[in-house]
Amino acid sequence: MFIFEHITGRPFEIKTSMDMYIYYYSCLLAGKEYVKTFDEFIDECDSDENYMKWFVERWTEHSKRQQLLNGKSDETASGEEESKKKIDGSYL
Predict the structure, then answer these.
(1) 21 contacts 45 by C-beta, under 8 angstroms
(2) Positive or negative CA dihedral for 12, 17, 18, 22?
(3) Spatial separation of the C-alpha atoms in residues 62 and 40, rounded to whole Å
(4) Which mean pLDDT values do the consecutive 10-residue runs of the chain (92 residues) have?
(5) Greatest extent of the chain over all pairs of C-alpha atoms, in Å
(6) Within 2-48, where are the H helices?
(7) Domain spans of the chain?
């Protein structure tokens, strides 16, 4: 995450596709054996659609595990949303 923050100049947060690419690139750089430029990395992603797909799948799995560890399953999230309903049925 430090490398991501250094590259972007802002706190770590994945909001866009570009953020995901930068985060993946940052993870590769953190291994200290990856020596390609960001442009070369993007070229690799463009030449093989599975390159980025693999990372996004890992990220999704990691995010789900984090939610479970933090006690926020899909059921919990929907229950919280239901409890926020006003009497007229709209959400806060």
Answers:
(1) yes
(2) positive
(3) 26
(4) 94 93 94 93 94 90 89 55 43 40
(5) 58
(6) 2-8, 17-30, 38-47
(7) 1-53
